[in-house]
Design brief:
Elements: E1 2-7, E2 12-19, E3 26-34, H1 41-59, E4 63-67, H2 75-94, E5 98-102, H3 104-112, H4 119-130, H5 139-156, H6 158-165, H7 180-186
Parallel strand pairs: 1-4, 4-5
Antiparallel strand pairs: 1-2, 2-3
Helix pairs in contact: 1-2, 3-5, 4-5, 5-6
C-alpha cells in the first residue's frame, strides 16, 4: 500500500508518500508545497488542490492520511487551515482515494509516546524508525510523514489504535460494567476477523 500523508497548511503544506508493501517501509517522497509567495488566499487554496491532484496522479497512492485541524485561539487561522485540509481531501476523493484524519496529539502519541511532543521530537523519532538521513528544510514534511506512518500503524494493527483510545478508569467502590471495547482489548484472540 502507498499512503499519501499530508500536513495541511496555507503557507507551507507538507506531504509524504510511504510505501508499505512487502513488510518493509520505504519513503517514496517527502517535501513541502511552499505557498508564502502567493499573495491571494484563494489562489493558495487552488494551488493546494491542483498540487494534490498532481501528486496523486504521479504516484497513484492507495490512501490519504491527513492531519485534522487543531483547535486554537485564532478562529481565522483555524478556518483557513480547515479550507486547506478540505481541498486536499476533495482532491483525494475526486481520485477515489480513501481518507483518514488524525488528531495531532494522536499522531505524536503513536510516533513518540507523548501526545505533546515537539515537531523536532517527532522528526527525530521518525529518522530512527524509518532510517532516513534527510533533514528536511521544513518540519512540515516530517509531520506529513508522521501522519502517513500513523496511518500505516493503524491499518496494519487496528487493535493497537483501539488500545490507545482506552484510558484507565478510576476505581470506584462498585464494580464497573465491562464494556465491549475492554473485552476486545483483553481478548483479541476471541474476536473474529
Amino acid at each position: 500500500m502507498l499512503i499519501l500523508g499530508i500536513d495541511p497548511g496555507t503557507l507551507i503544506l507538507g506531504y509524504s508518500l510511504l510505501n508499505t508493501d512487502g513488510g518493509q517501509l520505504r519513503i517514496e517522497a517527502m517535501d513541502v508545497l511552499y505557498l508564502k509567495k502567493i499573495p491571494e488566499f484563494n489562489q493558495r487554496i487552488r494551488r493546494i488542490f491542483e498540487s494534490t491532484l498532481r501528486i496523486i496522479d504521479s504516484f497513484h497512492p492507495d490512501h490519504l492520511a491527513i492531519e485534522a485541524p487543531f483547535f486554537g485561539k485564532n478562529v481565522q487561522s483555524m478556518l483557513k487551515l480547515g479550507r486547506a485540509q478540505g481541498v486536499a481531501i476533495a482532491a483525494a476523493m475526486s481520485r477515489d482515494l480513501s481518507v483518514t484524519e488524525y488528531e495531532p496529539s494522536v499522531i505524536k502519541q503513536h510516533i513518540t509516546g507523548n501526545g505533546n511532543a515537539s515537531k523536532e521530537q517527532v522528526a527525530s523519532m521518525l529518522r530512527s524508525i524509518l532510517q532516513f538521513d534527510d533533514h528536511p528544510r521544513y518540519l512540515d514534511a516530517t509531520d506529513a510523514l508522521a501522519v502517513a506512518y500513523t496511518c500505516h500503524l493503524q491499518l496494519s494493527n487496528p487493535m493497537a489504535d483501539l488500545r490507545s483510545q482506552l484510558k484507565p478508569k478510576k476505581q470506584s467502590r462498585k464494580p464497573a460494567k465491562k464494556q465491549w471495547a475492554d473485552f476486545i482489548v483483553q481478548n483479541p484472540e476471541r474476536v473474529m476477523s
